[in-house]
């Protein structure tokens, strides 16, 4: 199974690499069929540092001898499979040996596997655990291809992958029960594709006894999970449905956490439900329906629908109506499952298509993009009404804009607008805004304006003959905005300055003709405002105002943009709908009101979490991350982006994840973490290239160039940025390239090539002349100082510093650094020291380590040593990323847990941790924990 083995090999290789600095022990667990034994075999095959021992309970005494040998002869790998089956004394001996390996730093690696459908034995508690998760859809598809020698129809392969839910043993068993004709798609597949026999075979002897023992509790829990599609069930509901049966101790296959019951193995839960008699399953659903809080609520009706044995069109209608009721408190995930069930029970194809479409909408909101795609395919067809086909294309565009080629998303949105215009004008307006989002994301301003033109055509001169206006440039707080809004970070408040910039010169017309430039970085898909596309208009005013404001921004008419955007902002802040709050956050960033943007983004995040709208969480975190960058709080931006990256990946939103990677690259470029910049920039570019994300690509390149500049490599930085900021086919995204202009000017001047930057500075001046962004004026003066003759540069630097009053620490410190360098080279050493010390302090205050080192080096070159900030401890020798990792490890986190927490790869954590050990002269994690605790107690500066 080459594809599957390759994925596991990578995981094993990373684990073995980590264990050299991670205590040498892992308890490997996972549900039945996940491949624990295969994992050990792969580890034994890949281990190259020394001998491998496989031990059973009858050979546990050999373990002490093996560890003593490792202490003298070198590395050793010990593999123990199914340690939970050992007797208690043998488990105790194994647990003691594992603790010795962790605490002593012996050159031994101990891997032991235990079943994941039951609690870990107390002898192994406290040891680091690695839980083998399900295969990714791509790896599962490869496994099917290899198991069938490629003789499988793509549609059949997709069904097998979906039904197996990432379990390799279940996937193989499902393939084996199909005939060659079924695999080729020539004969119909059995239904269900994964039946009780297959599930029981993989689950083995782990199923409960018949009802009357613990079986009632297990079956009722399984029925509750089956109906809602969630991972767990309300413990109170299950207890009420089971009565006295639920009052005893829980079976070991169940776990209770914060009022929720779950199966420790999802596969065991599926098997419990599938293997029960049909009448017992129906009885469990009836009991759950009776125990539900509201007899006519979605949950009660859903369980009643699973208890029927024949047609029940009235029940299906009631279930669909309850799921569509906006007043119902049900989550999008529950509405999705209710509507899917109502579609299954529909009386005709038209009802079935409408319900599948509505179910797809809620699946998308719940962060289940793959389910949404499948339901959209069911709802699409030439025989369906235009409103249904239009609604399907509207949602398909949203899915693609969050996780697919954005040009394809634009075409879906445009088709949706055409189909919906006659009967659902509000939905059609949302579709045109979505098409504009997609065009913006692709860096196509003409297509963006074209998408908006049919519904709005103000009598204004295009931006080609207006002044240039883009986000605040080259700072730790760029005025960038997530997509789905077409929002731009117009530097200052358009509400405060509701005017149009003066009529342009010929120069402005020539520059602007290349592409309209508005401010912002959209990235993600628009989300339905509630209700099916054919329903009544909801939020029509907000959509219209957002569209009008965005088009005015694109056309350079900021006087016309202010009032509609102000209405969008105020309406959202007075509500609780997460989608409307996201529009408010976008409008606030376009108005230049960062505080309001942060408030709207935080409320949108809270509202998304409260309502269960998993698709909106990554977007809300993206707005928050950009707003924090804009406010000069790059470390907070980093925190939001790290969480946003995790939620985007869980929701299947690769495009959104790419923008979070770009934010993390920008933040890391301020802190001087070059390897981290490279990792996040490359991750952003990987998706950007595949899906046409022009703005994410531009930001990633800019972050990499700024890292070069911070590391003292101006020539490399200028080479990266030149194509992005100069006119030509390779210029970056029309609303983003201006962000990098000050960085390019500094790089070109420092590399001795100022002549390449002169024309770009004039482009930048056109935007800065609008006066909306207080930071742009200071940046422009700094750029002019870098290119000016000596008799003019002094005054320009002083004027730039005078305009930095409202800027963040990082940007002001950059001007101080450049001015200090200029003064030192003219032998004005006393003035230079003052400026350079101010720069060093400013960089340290915002965590810009490499930049602070530049200032310190300039101070030393001028004959002065930088003042010591505080008495530093040993940990002060670490880089910011190394320090973060060291602290996580000191808290007991494993390398994989650290990687998850910091949104980096395990290999990156391994690399940094090895450098931590080398820098500090440590040999084990225990010594690192002691050092961190000691320095925290003594108050040394970390």
From TrEMBL:
Q: Give a Pfam family name.
A: GerE
Q: Which residues form the HTH luxR-type domain?
A: 871-936
Keyword annotations: DNA-binding
- InterPro entries from the UniProt entry: P-loop_NTPase (IPR027417), Sig_transdc_resp-reg_C-effctor (IPR016032), TPR-like_helical_dom_sf (IPR011990), Tscrpt_reg_LuxR_C (IPR000792), WalR-like (IPR039420), WH-like_DNA-bd_sf (IPR036388)
List where Low complexity composition bias occurs.
510-519
Which residue stretches belong to region Disordered?
Answer: 475-540
Q: Which PANTHER family match?
A: TRANSCRIPTIONAL REGULATORY PROTEIN DESR, TWO-COMPONENT RESPONSE REGULATOR
What is the protein's name according to its record? Helix-turn-helix transcriptional regulator
Look up and give the organism this protein is from: Streptomyces tendae
């Amino acid at each position: 199974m080459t594809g599957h083995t390759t994925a596991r090999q990578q995981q094993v290789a990373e684990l073995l690499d980590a264990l050299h600095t991670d205590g040498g022990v892992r308890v490997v667990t996972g549900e039945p069929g996940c491949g624990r034994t295969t994992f050990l075999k792969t580890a034994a095959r890949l281990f190259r540092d020394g001998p491998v021992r496989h031990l059973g309970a009858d050979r546990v005494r050999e373990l002490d001898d093996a560890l003593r040998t490792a202490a003298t002869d070198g590395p050793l790998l010990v593999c123990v499979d199914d340690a939970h089956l050992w007797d208690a004394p043998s488990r105790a001996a194994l647990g003691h040996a594992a603790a010795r390996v962790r605490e002593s730093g012996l050159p031994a690696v101990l891997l032991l596997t235990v079943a994941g459908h039951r609690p870990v034995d107390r002898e192994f508690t406290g040891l680091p655990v690695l839980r083998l998760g399900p295969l990714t859809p791509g790896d599962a598809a490869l496994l099917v291809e290899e198991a069938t020698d490629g003789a499988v129809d793509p549609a059949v392969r997709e069904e097998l992958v979906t039904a197996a839910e990432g379990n390799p043993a279940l996937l193989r068993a499902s393939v084996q029960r199909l005939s060659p004709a079924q695999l080729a798609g020539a004969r119909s597949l059995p239904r269900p594709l994964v039946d009780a026999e297959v599930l029981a075979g993989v689950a083995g002897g782990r199923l409960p006894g018949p009802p009357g023992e613990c079986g009632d509790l297990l079956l009722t829990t399984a029925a509750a999970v089956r109906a809602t599609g969630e991972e767990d069930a309300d413990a109170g509901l299950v207890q009420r449905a089971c009565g006295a049966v639920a009052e005893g101790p829980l079976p070991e296959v169940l776990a209770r956490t914060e009022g929720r019951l779950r199966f420790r193995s999802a596969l065991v839960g599926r098997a419990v439900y599938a293997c029960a008699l049909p009448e017992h399953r129906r009885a469990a659903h009836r009991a759950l329906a009776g125990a539900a809080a509201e007899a006519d609520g979605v949950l009660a009706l859903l369980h009643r629908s699973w208890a029927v044995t024949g047609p029940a069109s009235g029940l299906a209608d009631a279930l669909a109506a309850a799921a569509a009721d906006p007043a119902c408190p049900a989550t999008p995930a529950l509405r999705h499952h209710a509507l899917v069930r109502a579609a299954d029970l529909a009386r005709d194809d038209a009802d079935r298509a409408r319900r599948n479409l509505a179910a797809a909408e809620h699946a998308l909101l719940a962060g289940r993009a793959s389910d949404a795609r499948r339901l959209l395919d069911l709802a699409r067809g030439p025989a369906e009404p235009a409103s249904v086909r239009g609604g399907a294309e509207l949602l398909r565009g949203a899915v693609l804009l969050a996780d697919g080629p954005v040009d394809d998303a634009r075409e879906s949105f445009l088709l949706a607008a055409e189909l919906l215009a006659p009967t659902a004008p509000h939905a059609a307006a949302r579709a045109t805004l979505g098409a504009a989002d997609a065009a913006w994301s692709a860096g196509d301003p003409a297509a963006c304006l074209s998408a908006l033109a049919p519904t709005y055509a103000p009598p204004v001169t295009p931006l080609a003959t207006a002044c240039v206006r883009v986000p605040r440039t080259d700072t730790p707080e760029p005025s960038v905005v997530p997509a789905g809004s077409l929002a731009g970070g117009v530097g200052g408040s358009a509400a405060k300055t509701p005017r149009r910039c003066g009529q342009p010169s010929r120069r402005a017309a020539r520059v602007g003709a290349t592409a309209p430039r508005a401010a912002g970085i959209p990235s993600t898909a628009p989300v339905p405002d509630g209700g099916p596309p054919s329903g009544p208009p909801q939020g029509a005013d907000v959509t219209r105002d957002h569209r009008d404001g965005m088009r005015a921004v694109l056309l350079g008419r900021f006087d016309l943009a202010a009032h509609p955007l102000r209405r969008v902002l105020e309406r959202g802040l007075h509500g609780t709908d997460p989608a409307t709050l996201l529009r408010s956050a976008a409008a606030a960033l376009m108005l230049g009101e960062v505080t309001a943007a942060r408030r709207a983004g935080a409320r949108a995040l809270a509202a998304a979490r409260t309502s269960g709208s998993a698709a909106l969480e990554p977007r809300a975190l993206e707005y928050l991350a950009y707003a924090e960058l804009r406010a000069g709080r790059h470390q907070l931006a980093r925190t939001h982006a790290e969480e946003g990256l995790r939620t985007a990946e869980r929701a299947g939103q690769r495009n959104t994840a790419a923008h979070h990677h770009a934010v993390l690259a920008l933040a890391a470029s301020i802190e001087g973490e070059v390897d981290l910049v490279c990792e996040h920039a490359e991750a952003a570019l990987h998706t950007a290239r595949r899906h046409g994300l022009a703005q994410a690509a531009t930001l990633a390149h800019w972050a990499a160039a700024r890292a070069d500049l911070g590391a003292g490599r101006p020539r490399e930085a200028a080479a990266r940025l030149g194509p992005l900021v100069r006119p030509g086919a390779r210029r970056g995204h029309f609303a983003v390239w201006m962000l990098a202009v000050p960085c390019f000017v500094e790089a070109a001047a420092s590399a001795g090539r100022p002549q390449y930057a002169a024309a770009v500075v004039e482009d930048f001046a056109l935007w800065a002349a609008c006066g909306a962004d207080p930071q742009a004026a200071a940046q422009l003066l700094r750029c002019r100082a870098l290119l000016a003759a000596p008799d003019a540069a002094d005054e320009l630097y002083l004027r730039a510093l005078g305009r930095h009053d409202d800027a963040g620490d990082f940007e002001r410190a950059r001007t101080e650094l450049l001015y200090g360098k200029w003064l030192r080279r003219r032998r004005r050493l006393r003035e230079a020291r003052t400026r350079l010390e101010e720069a060093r302090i400013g960089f340290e205050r915002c965590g810009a380590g490499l930049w602070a080192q530049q200032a310190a080096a300039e101070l030393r070159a001028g004959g002065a040593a930088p003042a010591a900030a505080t008495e530093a401890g040993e940990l002060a020798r670490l880089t910011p990323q190394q320090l973060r990792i060291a602290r996580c490890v000191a808290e007991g986190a494993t390398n994989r847990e650290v990687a998850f927490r910091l949104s980096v790869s395990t290999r990156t954590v391994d690399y940094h941790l090895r450098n931590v050990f080398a820098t500090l002269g440590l040999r084990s994690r225990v010594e690192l924990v002691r050092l961190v605790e000691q320095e925290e107690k003594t108050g040394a500066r970390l």
